[in-house]
Design a protein that fits this description.
Largest sheet: 7 strands, mixed
Distance between the termini: 104 Å
Shape: elongated
Number of strands: 7
Structural class: alpha/beta
Helix content: 25-40%
Radius of gyration: 32 Å
Order of helices and strands: EHEEEHEEHEHHHHHH
Strand content: 15-25%
Amino acid sequence: MLVFAGLGNPGAKYADNRHNVGFMAADAIARRHSFSPWSKKFQGLIAEGTLGGEKIILIKPQTFMNLSGQSVGEALRFYKLGPEALTVFYDEIDLAEGKLRIKTGGGAGGHNGIRSIDGHVGNAYRRVRIGVGHPGVKEMVQHHVLGDFAKADREWLEPLLEAIADNAAMIVKGDESGFMNKAALAVQGKAAPEPEKPARRQEPKQQSHVRQARPPQPAVKLPESGPMAAMLKKLFGKD
């Protein structure tokens, strides 16, 4: 048995928020694979089904994002499962919109839902990070994640959620790179491009310290008449 947790905030007010993309992923999986109806348990909503021959408990914590670990931890303890049986789907501002990455373990990266789960079950679980982009300044992050997806976002969001649902069994089988590839193909040309790194400024070519230290030499004017001029003409064969 495995537990798939989608993170978000409960209630219609938050339903379309970027912060709720984890709930959206859980809903998409439940619909696509005909999971049981959602029921209340473990301070959350759960649905049961099968993926890749493995029984899956889908859970959407209803404790609000910052206390997600209470719900997820209760579920793992009830089924006597360790963190290695857990996969969490959530929003990631450090990924461009439409990008998806999977990793196991690591830090919370400022995400309060992940920080809460870490506190209850440890951090050795799989994370499916769904990029929602960064507003550009730290002060706007809360407004950004608690804001709704724009209509234009649906062009990449809907295909991405479909790809997550269609290929969720690949996560169960451990084919994480294959799963990420399917997600990337689904939003190809629709997701936001990765922000370009600023061009590296070319420094002026440096002279050697010897050349820098040597002052420019004035041109030497050769004599045109007199004994010295006659000698130079004879030496270099000048007429």
